[in-house]
Specification:
Elements (H helix, E strand, L loop, with lengths): L10 H12 L4 H8 L8 H10 L2 H11 L14 H8 L1 H19 L4 H23 L5 H9 L3 H9 L2 H12 L4 H9 L3 H11 L4 H8 L7 H14 L7 H14 L3 H21 L12
């Protein structure tokens, strides 16, 4: 096992670094939003006010709220308050936090690995939401957020890791088949553990926390998140590769439909994912989403 020269080793050390040194990059707005709960009578107005204080977040949130992913009624959402009424307090809170996270990652050290992770995140999120809707999930938007943040810890690490990131990047390039083992050897933990800890800290996506525990049943909404990510990752070499076909079959089995019946829709979902990435301001990641 190795240790990077900054002395950073182990999950708690990295959590401490992100909490104490890097969390300010998420901004005061994100910290205010994190601490709000809908159990308080004033929470809705406080959430709206917190978002409105950040013009960039407001603009992105309204674009996202008006996208086909979140707005199935076709009714234009022109205010944050209206978005809260239509989508619900907790969903707007999670969208706002996801906007803050993506903005922070874009301001960090944007390696190619970060862009690829972002592309997978947006692609997986759109595919997962579609799967949830196909299965008549009551809240497919929750599935979208869970898939979007499925590699939250990876993105945080790659943006803020510095020298340790360089060391891990080189090790993964040498041994790409067993990333978890490489992460454990270099860092003393696996990046999904960082994702789990950060999602708990930021009180975002209870569904994702359930996914990361790994104790879900077949054809559950948790499984759709995992399958969507595998589909996004497996299709990066193109839709006609054996790997992409295998992942498409997994999704078809989950939906209990023939692969041929969903193939066209799945490829169109990738196009929609590129649009969603643009809504979030992550246009540079689009080139890594298969079209």
């Amino acid at each position: 096992m190795t240790q990077d020269k900054s002395g950073m080793r182990g999950l708690n050390a990295w959590l401490g670094r992100i909490r104490d040194q890097e969390l300010p990059i998420f901004g005061k707005t994100a910290e205010q939003i994190r601490d709000l709960t809908d159990s308080e009578k004033s929470a809705v107005s406080e959430l709206a006010e917190a978002i409105l204080r950040d013009q960039g977040m407001t603009a992105k949130l309204l674009r996202i709220a008006n996208s086909v992913i979140f707005n199935t009624s076709g009714t234009q959402v022109t205010t944050v308050s209206r978005a809260i009424v239509m989508l619900g307090f907790d969903m707007v809170r999670q969208i706002a936090l996801s906007v803050a996270f993506i903005d922070a990652f874009l301001r960090g050290r944007v390696r190619e690995r970060v862009q690829r992770e972002m592309a997978r995140a947006f692609h997986a999120a759109v595919q997962a939401r579609w799967m949830a809707a196909k299965r008549h999930d009551a809240q497919p938007e929750e599935v979208f957020i869970a898939a979007l943040l499925y590699r939250f810890g990876d993105l945080a690490f790659w943006c803020f890791a510095g020298q340790a990131g360089d060391e891990l990047d080189e090790a993964l390039l040498r041994n790409p088949q067993y990333p978890g083992d490489v992460e454990q050897s270099i860092l003393g933990f696996r990046l999904p553990q960082l994702t789990a800890a950060l999602t708990r800290d930021w009180r975002v996506s209870p569904l994702l926390q359930s996914v990361l525990k790994g104790s879900y049943t077949k054809r559950s909404r948790e499984q759709s998140v995992v399958l969507a990510f595998r589909l996004a990752e497996g299709s990066e070499g193109g839709w006609h590769t054996d790997r992409a076909r295998a992942r498409l079959k997994d999704v078809a089995d989950y939906l209990q439909l023939p692969p041929g019946e969903i193939a066209d829709t799945v490829t169109m979902n990738a196009v929609e994912a590129a649009a969603v990435a643009e809504y979030y301001g992550a246009g540079d990641a689009v080139r890594f989403i298969p079209q």
